[in-house]
Structure formats: structure tokens, C-alpha cells
């Protein structure tokens, strides 16, 4: 119980530090949410600043915002005056979760079998060809992959829409664009892990007892080979979260990444802080879940996460 409370305290401290750093950096950036090419009358500017508490000193703004967050209120949006940040996050979060979840699922369902298949044929021309394509998948960034997918499947072949949201076809290209780099890394990681496990002494002993390669794979080699893949889920999630900002902009998806980019460009302080706070909580929660999964798969780790 004490260790659980300590880990919970560490998680809360991490989220608080992340949000506080973002608060300071936003205020330090030049410009403001109501700066325009043609300045508004002074009384209008003063009324706007008073409405959004921008006329207060920076510590007072921070204390007021922190108090609102403690009550579950992320504040009003500067860019979307008819909506609160809570409402915008409630609309955007399911979109990003669906897109990111499908991308991660695709990376795992395709990457892990491909990596294991390649490890079982290590040194063959198929293995070398696979490693070549995996390297290309890692080298090409998402802001290149996404437009190429649009050009091929939407513009040239007319199989899928180039953007938008609302139909199941709108999910395909964004999920693939998010998944490809992670799929390549997952496959390479699964291959390297399986190669290490195949040369373990306990597998050599089991093989000497006459067990088939199929039984060796599924009964003895697969579980330890998947441990590095499970540990990789945390950085994979961060990769998907950061990549979603680019992908959602390219495909015009109303997700968290797009709101973050638009909020940053328009100095919508509360919207950016709300997105950072929600994403930070999600990452901390996923890290905890991944630790629990690793502990269930490897008993040696149970004392460290209990």
C-alpha cells in the first residue's frame, strides 16, 4: 500500500511539473491570445484581459488556473469562445484515442508476427529484404508518409478519402500513417528479442529433449521474447501522441493533436494547457499499466511495481 501511494504521488508530481512547465513556456512566448494586426480599442482589450484573468500578475494567474484544474475545470477557450476546454477535449479525445489505438494495434498485430517470422529465418534473403523495408519504415517521417498515402490512395487510386471525419473510411489512412514507423520498430525489436531467446540455454535443453520448433516457440520462447515489446509500449504511445499532431493536421481530423497545434499558433493558453494535462495523465496511466503487464509476464519485476 505504501509503495502504491508513493507511485501515485510520483505520477501526480510528474503531471503537475509537466503542466507547470507548459504554463511558464506559454507565457514566455512572444505575443498573446488577443494580439491582432489591427489592435482593438483599449477598453475592449482591457475587458478581454479581465474576462480571461490576463490582467492579473503571473503567479495569480497560475494559482487561479491551478485551482480550476483541481475542481476539474480546464477553463474557457480563447480561440473558441462558445466552448470550454472541457467540451473541446471531450469531443477530441475519443477521436485521438480511436486513431492512436488502431495505429498501435496495427503495429503490434503486424509487427510482432513479422519480427518473429524473420527471426526464424535469420540470414535468409527474405530476412534481409524484410530488414531493408523495416529500415525504410523507420527512416521516413510521418509528415512524409501521410501526404504520400493521400497522393497514392486518395488522389491517384480514389480508394479512400483524403481527409475529414465521420465515416470508417476516414480512419484508415491516418491509422496507417501513425502505425508504419511504430510497426517497423516493433518488428525489428521482436526479431532481435526472438534471436536472443532462441540461443538461450533452456531452449537448447528443451530442443535436446526432442520438442518440436513450433512447441518451443509458443510454449517457451514467445513469452520472454515479448517482454521487450511490452516495455516498448510506453515510448510507442509517446511516439503516437507526438505524431498525431502532424497526422491530424494533414488529414483534417478534429483530434487532440490538431487542437494542440491550433491552440499553440493562436496562443490559446487554456486549450494548450488542457491538452497537455489530459495527454500527460494518459501517458502516466499507460506507463503504470505497462509496468503491471511486465510484472505479470516476468515475476522478477513484481517487487518493483507492487
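Q: What amino acid sequence fits the structure above?
A:
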Amino acid at each position: 500500500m505504501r509503495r502504491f501511494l508513493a507511485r501515485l504521488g510520483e505520477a501526480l508530481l510528474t503531471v503537475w511539473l509537466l503542466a507547470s512547465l507548459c504554463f511558464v513556456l506559454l507565457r514566455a512566448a512572444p505575443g498573446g491570445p488577443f494580439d491582432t494586426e489591427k489592435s482593438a480599442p483599449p477598453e475592449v482589450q482591457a475587458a478581454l484581459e479581465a474576462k480571461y484573468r490576463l490582467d492579473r500578475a503571473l503567479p495569480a494567474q497560475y494559482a487561479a488556473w491551478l485551482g480550476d484544474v483541481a475542481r476539474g475545470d480546464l477553463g474557457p477557450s480563447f480561440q473558441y469562445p462558445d466552448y470550454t476546454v472541457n467540451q473541446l477535449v471531450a469531443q477530441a479525445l475519443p477521436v485521438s484515442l480511436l486513431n492512436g489505438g488502431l495505429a498501435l494495434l496495427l503495429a503490434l498485430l503486424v509487427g510482432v508476427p513479422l519480427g518473429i517470422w524473420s527471426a526464424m529465418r535469420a540470414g535468409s534473403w527474405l530476412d534481409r529484404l524484410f530488414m531493408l523495408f523495416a529500415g525504410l519504415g523507420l527512416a521516413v517521417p510521418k509528415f512524409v508518409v501521410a501526404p504520400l498515402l493521400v497522393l497514392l490512395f486518395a488522389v491517384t487510386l480514389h480508394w479512400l478519402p483524403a481527409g475529414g471525419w465521420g465515416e470508417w473510411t476516414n480512419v484508415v489512412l491516418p491509422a496507417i500513417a501513425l502505425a508504419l514507423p511504430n510497426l517497423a520498430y516493433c518488428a525489428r525489436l521482436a526479431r532481435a528479442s526472438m534471436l536472443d531467446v532462441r540461443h538461450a540455454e533452456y531452449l537448447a535443453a528443451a530442443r535436446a529433449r526432442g520438442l518440436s520448433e513450433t512447441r518451443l516457440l509458443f510454449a517457451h520462447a514467445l513469452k520472454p521474447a515479448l517482454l521487450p515489446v511490452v516495455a516498448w509500449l510506453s515510448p510507442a504511445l509517446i511516439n503516437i501522441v507526438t505524431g498525431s499532431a502532424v497526422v491530424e493536421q494533414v488529414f483534417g481530423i478534429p483530434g487532440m493533436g490538431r487542437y494542440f497545434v491550433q491552440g499553440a499558433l493562436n496562443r490559446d493558453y487554456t486549450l494548450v494547457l488542457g491538452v497537455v494535462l489530459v495527454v500527460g495523465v494518459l501517458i502516466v496511466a499507460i506507463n503504470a499499466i505497462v509496468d503491471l503487464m511486465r510484472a505479470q509476464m516476468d515475476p522478477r519485476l513484481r517487487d518493483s511495481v507492487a
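Q: And what stands out in the fold?
A: Residues 213 and 219 are 10 Å apart (CA to CA).
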